[in-house]
């Protein structure tokens, strides 16, 4: 589907994002982290691992100094993009690779940033030894417990939030059978995962996290029912998060606030954890001005939803530069999904976030 003009894409009830902050204004040199209200963490994924290993550039976090400079300046929360996923941090049974994750945690502490741990129980990016191994149910349960206890315990007191259960429901609200632990051990393993994580780090906030939960529907209903069940069973669940991987092929998520509010009403924290907004690119690969303005409105819509919910305490974009975005690798016809271009030039989406954060800070 071709990207339409801004006025068509915005849809009813959505207003265009604010224009870029003019040079010389009081916000012209203020980074996102300092523009934001004091009670809202502004985060990004830290590029590395995963699809980056297949590219013709070295590890971004390790070798790209300008990247690290922007990472330190703009954000007060960081999420390892791949460095804490099973295939990366636990590549062989009984063998852990903590080096890349340790480096991110150290960087965060040096720059006054908190860390969101990502992720402990997921159906994807698991190592072959786990997915292809022959284990009894007791062995599989012990493997998961050891992994959670070891990884969470290593970073005890150093990670603010953990995505404990990631993408555990299909779009129809049923548990994902691709998740080896859910398939082999049953849904009750989700409860166990939260309890083990809490024992390993009692102060960390523990989250459910998924995409496709930006509008009301059966998937959101499934998470709400699960949250109520876990809370009733006194499971240490602290939050619900929307990843918010969005495409301009579809409307902006104007019902996201209502979704987050449902979980806020349960006494949970809420968060935006992986926001990006991809678009169909014209021939030549350069977005039009209209596309960039529409993208800014999508970003602002998601931030507005978070700001409107009392205990939405973390707002994370999934990478800040198109240079290292995962989107073109997984969606070859789409791209330009982040708030900065390949050379860290700021897009209208960046300014929409900064202006909105500054207004919220002023009004709180």
Automatic annotation (TrEMBL):
InterPro entries: GH, GH10, GH10_dom
Record keywords, A-Z: Carbohydrate metabolism, Glycosidase, Hydrolase, Polysaccharide degradation, Signal, Xylan degradation
EC number: 3.2.1.8
GO biological process terms, semicolon-separated: xylan catabolic process
Gene3D superfamilies: Glycosidases
SMART domains: Glyco_10 (SM00633)
Catalytic activity reported: Endohydrolysis of (1->4)-beta-D-xylosidic linkages in xylans
Coiled-coil blocks: none
Molecular function in Gene Ontology: endo-1,4-beta-xylanase activity
Residue ranges occupied by any GH10 domain in the UniProt entry: 62-356
Top-level class of the enzyme under EC nomenclature: hydrolase
Pfam families: Glyco_hydro_10
Keyword Signal found: yes
Keyword Nucleotide-binding found: no
PANTHER family hit by this protein: BETA-XYLANASE, GLYCOSYL HYDROLASE
Similarity section: Belongs to the glycosyl hydrolase 10 (cellulase F) family.
Protein name in UniProt: Beta-xylanase
Protein source organism: Actinoplanes friuliensis DSM 7358
Taxonomic lineage of the native organism: Bacteria, Bacillati, Actinomycetota, Actinomycetes, Micromonosporales
């Amino acid at each position: 589907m071709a990207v339409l003009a801004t006025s068509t894409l915005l849809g009813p009830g959505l207003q265009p994002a604010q224009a870029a902050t003019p040079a010389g204004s009081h916000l012209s040199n203020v980074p996102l982290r300092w523009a934001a209200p004091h009670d809202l963490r502004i985060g990004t994924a830290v590029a590395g691992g995963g699809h980056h290993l297949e590219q013709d550039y070295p590890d971004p976090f390790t070798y790209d100094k300008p990247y690290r400079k922007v990472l330190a300046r703009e954000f007060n929360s960081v999420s390892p993009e791949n460095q804490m996923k099973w295939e990366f941090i636990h590549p062989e049974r009984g063998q852990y690779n903590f080096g890349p994750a340790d480096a991110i945690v150290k960087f965060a502490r040096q720059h006054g940033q908190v860390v969101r741990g990502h992720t402990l129980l997921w159906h994807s990016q698991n190592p072959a030894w786990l997915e292809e191994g022959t284990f009894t149910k007791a062995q599989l349960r012990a493997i998961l417990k050891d992994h959670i206890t070891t990884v969470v315990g290593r970073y005890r007191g150093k990670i603010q939030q953990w995505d404990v259960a990631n993408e555990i429901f299909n779009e129809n609200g049923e548990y994902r059978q691709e998740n080896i632990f859910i398939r082999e051990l049953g849904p009750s393993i989700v409860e166990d995962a939260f309890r083990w994580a809490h024992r390993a780090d009692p102060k960390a906030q523990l989250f459910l996290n998924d995409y496709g939960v930006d509008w009301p529907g059966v998937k959101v209903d499934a998470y709400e029912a699960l949250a109520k069940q876990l809370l009733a069973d006194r499971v240490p669940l602290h939050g619900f998060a929307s990843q918010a991987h969005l495409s301009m092929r579809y409307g902006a998520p104007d019902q996201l606030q209502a979704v987050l509010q449902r979980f806020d009403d349960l006494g949970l924290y809420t968060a935006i954890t992986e926001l990006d907004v991809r678009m169909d690119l014209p021939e030549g690969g350069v977005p039009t001005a209209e596309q960039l303005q529409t993208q800014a409105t999508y970003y602002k819509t998601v931030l507005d939803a978070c700001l409107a919910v009392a205990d939405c305490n973390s707002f994370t974009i999934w990478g800040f530069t198109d240079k290292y975005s995962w989107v073109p690798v997984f969606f070859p016809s789409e791209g330009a999904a982040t708030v900065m271009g390949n050379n860290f030039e700021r897009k209208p989406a960046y300014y929409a976030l900064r202006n909105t954060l500054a207004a919220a800070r002023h009004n709180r």
